[in-house]
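Both lines are retained for reference:
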Amino acid sequence: MYILGINAYHGGASAAIIKDGQLIAAVEEERFTRQKYWAGFPVQSIQYCLDAAGITAYDLDHVGVSRNPSANLLKKVTYTLRNRPSLGFIRDRLNNAGKVGDLKSQLAEKMGLDAAALRADFHNVEHHRAHMASAFFVSPFSEAAIFSVDGMGDFVSTMTGTGRDTQMQVRDTVNFPHSLGNFYTLICQWLGFPKYGDEGKVMGLAPYGTPRYMDQMAQILRWQPDGSFELNLDYITTFADGDLMTWDGGSPQIPRLYSDKLIKLLGEPREPYSEITPLYQDVAASLQHTLELVEMAIVTRLQRETGQTNLVMAGGVALNSAFNGKILPSTPFEEIFIQPAAGDAGTSLGVCYYIYHQTLNQPRTFEMVDSYTGPAYDHEAISQALAARGLTGRVLDDDALCHEAAALVADQNVVGWFQGRMEWGPRALGNRSIIADPRYASTKDILNARIKKREKFRPFAPAILAEATAGYFDQSYPDPFMLKVYNVLPDKHEAIPAVTHVDGTGRLQTVEEPINPRYYNLIKAFGERTGVPVVLNTSFNENEPIVNTPEEAIDCFLRTKMDALAIGSYLITK
């Protein structure tokens, strides 16, 4: 049984495919279009998934999309009419709903198929139920509490529930316009970070400030000790929901969410790319602290009411790794799972497993232990790409490649690392990574000047051998997907300054040999040479989506000041 899941006409368009419950492939459309968070119908992602499965669309048994225009319909209509929208707004919303509501026609039209010959059953899965499924059904837990939180999807911003075996039950929902995701985004915009996806930047900025504006945050987001909350709508523009974004191709464009009253409360907004003064640092700190307090109240109540010791999370806000790292030390939860594409892209994965388990009641046989679900390229494809660009390199066996690359990194060279299948989700996790030496604070400036060309306040991540985690961080709970921030032990700050953030933390990736042996052996070889089993790992890109193909990796290597490239079995140095 083949099931195709799709996230379409929404940020992070993507596709995933499973066969008899086993994940075959999952990929985001941005990796093909080279536009971040690309929104539209993910034609290339779907084609890749079909090719990876070795089938055509006519062989599919089920196809689903992570939108359901019928979900919460009465609440949508009531709210819309109350706010007297323009005819153009209504027309656009109906057009969008029509596309996701007629998935069969859209698939046939976009993929050049004969709709009458498609034998699959077609499904619309509510957005947050897809999020929940993407977390629970691929987790290692037979039962768990579930927490899904983002900006908005199908008129819902937050959903909690429980899962047991092949079924999930929804407990509570929070409806539009009240949204933790939109609260975070509107303050990000005021801080001068207006682009879709800029929230992660502000999370990195927050540790530079002091949360001196908590009273102001409390005026914008009213919340109670039990985690219930509502936005003060005086501070947010009318219709500031996901439906106002540009979804049909290209990167999503978000309108201004904050109202003039917010300016009266906080002062003049920061112009993008201008100086970040202490005011903006402190507002960022206050924003992050408020989010963490509210989320902690929600998960604490969820644990108390369900009695569960396992927690799974999904939704764009579940990418807030600073909060995620505080959950286990601060609550009775003992285990936690967040799949690597926790944002909207991950809903295509959730669609597959929602249909397979929740709808068809098929038994669970799959656990997501790695993020390597995208395209891979063989030795011949890499050889041809190198030759086309006039490059030659040495072909090495695995052991020699890892040791020579480790030696280059230990000599403070920056190494592009392109191996195996591309990662699923926003983090490079050792297959499309840039590797550098974490032992020198200057490494951060070198990377920003030579390659990344991004804000200096943004941290770089440590990748560490899993068994060495307790020797460097205050928690040793595995985090293979780089979705939690832990405290670096005080006596290790000077050992790994390039990956220790200003507040003494690090967003780590724990690396295990069975999961990614080549990457593990690179870090191990670096540790043997330096005594530090940690490397700096950042995504292989330059202000673009993470590289997908050998050609993209080589081009990035050539136009930046990387020192070496380990691509497949080749090692090329400048």
Summary: The mean pLDDT is 94. Residues 2-131+343-359 form a domain with the Nucleotidyltransferase; domain 5 fold (CATH 3.30.420.40).
